[in-house]
Amino acid sequence: MVDLEKLTPMMKQYMGIKSKYKDAILLFRLGDFYEAFFEDAEVISKVLNIVLTKRQSAPMAGIPYHALENYLKKLVESGYKVAICEQMEDASRAKGIVKREVTRVITPGTIIEDELLSSDNNYLMSVIFEENYVSAFIDVSTGELFLKIFEKLDELIDYVKISNISQIICDEKLYEDLKRELPDIFVEKLDEWYFQGYDEKIKETYKLASVDHFELLESEKKVLGGLLKYLEYTLMDSKVPQKPKKLEKTKYMVLDSKTVDNLSLIPGEKGKNLFDVLNQTKTSMGARLLKKWILQPLKDKNEILERQGLVEAFYNDQLLLNEIREYLSGVYDIERILTRLSYGKVSPKDLISLKNSLLLIPHIKEALSTNKKLEDFASNLDEFREVVVFLERALYDEPSNSPGDGNVIKEGYSVELDDYRNLLFHSEERLKKFQELERQRTGIQKLKVGFNQVFGYYIEVPKGQIKNVPEDYIRKQTLVNSERYITQELKEFEEKIMSAREKVELIEKSLFEEIRVKLLDYVENLRVLAQKLAQLDVVSNFAMVSRLYGYTKPEFTNSEFSVKNARHAVVERYISDFIPNDIYMDKKRRMYIITGPNMSGKSTYIRQVGLIAVMAQIGCFVPGENVKLPIFDRVFTRMGARDDISTGKSTFLVEMSEVALILDKATRESLVLLDEVGRGTSTFDGISIAWAMSEYIYNEIGCKTIFATHFTELTELSDVYEGIKNLTIAVKETNNGVIFLHKVIEGVADRSYGIEVAQIAGIPEGVVERAREILDVISKKSELEKKVSVLKQGQLKKIKSKKKIPNGQLSLFEGGVNG
Ligand SMILES: Nc1ncnc2c1ncn2[C@@H]1O[C@H](COP(=O)(O)OP(=O)(O)OP(=O)(O)O)[C@@H](O)[C@H]1O
């Protein structure tokens, strides 16, 4: 316990402030350092690896003020909330103890400082549970704000995992669940009052008398109110974020986190991914938008065609494409500049970057309007002439980054500032002149005018010349070889310069603030422009990569999915001789069972089908020829086998829960891609489940499905159902072993070549030989094949007519394959 009686006044001030920020690390500004005390000191010394000292047994640790940002980054990344307490007045002018206040609370989701952010989005999410899981999330650095509702906790968790959400705030009820399910995310529980009085909070924030036109549900308002209050608490400012956008489930193709991962859509653990292949955007705004588009492919045909139309226009006009991309490379991250502008953290250089970006708009408009198909887009771009002219007049082209030093506001903008600046910046010349006149007056040629912190300007005379010093010199200091004096005139001059310095600081700072406030009126419209530029960046980027990699424009159908020479957008970038393969599916021919040796290219083929669907629906061209495909409502994938160690589920349980999700959620408009199902259990159980599942998907759901498997028994499904076909991958056997041709053909794999692959992988020759002998024996003895062929005859017909049993569970083979 700290004995308050024994504390100095400053430590009492510290304790008072700390009591309001108990859950944060308080960094307390003391001169040139930010100090932490007690437990906070112990934490930061450990996390930041800095020295822990003690004052009267109280642990303390400090970080130099100029290195704050580096240390902050580490603390926030390590999952701490940090409150920054600043000195609110100049220590030299304070009467008594310097006033101090917390000016900012930094958490992973509320960072606006550019140095602490990557160019990616960074979201803070607020969630409550009221019938559904209702969320509001914002990227504070760009001001974008979304609302989204999830029916199940799993869906929410899944969304968080793929969406660059770095922090969640919630009420007591959800806290434990979210903390457990999202161990890598900073989850914070808020007091109840955050989610009360939301109507008032929203009205106050958006300066509206009523929020009816936002068309929000009560629960949406509640979760949004909590978010707005939290922003005020951390950013100490109630700046207006953008109006909330509702993310309706029905607007976008659904991609769960497993599918995002299985298809390697965005950078993650698997390395090579679609985002990296497609991303040649010129702005950070474009890169962020591209990622958003990849994670939310469109479902509305008109919207897709609109995007595709822009891509096509650029694709066909290469000269324009290159010109626009050249302009875009000069566009800065306007979204983030606008946020810093709103939060009073904008720098003079930011405003010049904004101006320079705006200067490009007339060129972009002019260029775009030369193409009929891009005219409309061009006419919707505002040039913000007023803002440009204003910034031209107000700021130097290369301003310093600290308003107040006199190098920010342009000459001619303020007469008053110019006068003081003149005095300050030309003081050197005046001093030189003064020195010259004094030399002449006294005849002391070695007389010098200098400056020090203790008594300001002085005249220095060498010891040997003291006799010539005039009456009006007042002695101030004696040194070994010289004496230092001041005069009335020099003192007055000094006061003028000092006051000029103060005035320049004061005036320039307040002019800069005035400029900032004036620009606030334009923020909302400038954001619209920023979004358009981001779109322009992504569509022109699509045209660019489509040309570069030979993608073609897909055409949308009601059901047919056909592509000639389809390729895998990511794999083809990393191997030199990728073999293209065709895809053909329609209403009838809607399920493929692919069998084939290990390593032959089954997974690559089914993933490329998924990637083509995603690419088409984000408006991009796709790797293939004569591409026709329907619009899918969701792509499901079930691939690989991995233990979910963090949740204690076994490989097989994970596999079965993924299958359960597909059977429950897939519709006729979905695309289902399965790479091995039923491998995590015994062969008989596995085949039975895979068989029953395929039947259910084919009969009950009726969606397009590709299923890669090593169970050749499943290929017999094609004998029973007309729309199920078999594919395999061609293999050439030579005297030196097998060659995988990676060519997909109709048919069934006759062998799995597992032993050949084992040999290639380096399994000792003896073991490989022995495996061959064993294979020889057991394949002769295999009972399995016989049993499945029994199914084919009488029993299969019976099973075929079986439907779902009432409780929603699947009826497995009655009597089973063993029976
Ligand atoms: N169309 C193709 N053209 C050229 N190379 C390919 C092609 N498809 C796959 N490959 C190469 O073959 C390798 C194995 O492919 P893939 O993982 O798809 O095989 P698989 O049949 O699914 O194997 P397994 O059954 O062992 O999972 C890939 O890493 C790739 O290098």
UniProtKB/TrEMBL annotation:
Pfam families: MutS_I (PF01624), MutS_II (PF05188), MutS_III (PF05192), MutS_IV (PF05190), MutS_V (PF00488). Keywords: ATP-binding, DNA damage, DNA repair, DNA-binding, Nucleotide-binding. The keyword Cell membrane does not apply. ATP binds at residues 596-603. SUPFAM superfamilies: DNA repair protein MutS, domain I, DNA repair protein MutS, domain II, DNA repair protein MutS, domain III, P-loop containing nucleoside triphosphate hydrolases. CDD domains: ABC_MutS1. It comes from the Bacteria. Residues 670-686 form the DNA mismatch repair proteins mutS family domain. SMART domains: MUTSac, MUTSd. This protein is involved in the repair of mismatches in DNA. It is possible that it carries out the mismatch recognition step. This protein has a weak ATPase activity. This is DNA mismatch repair protein MutS. It comes from Thermosipho affectus.
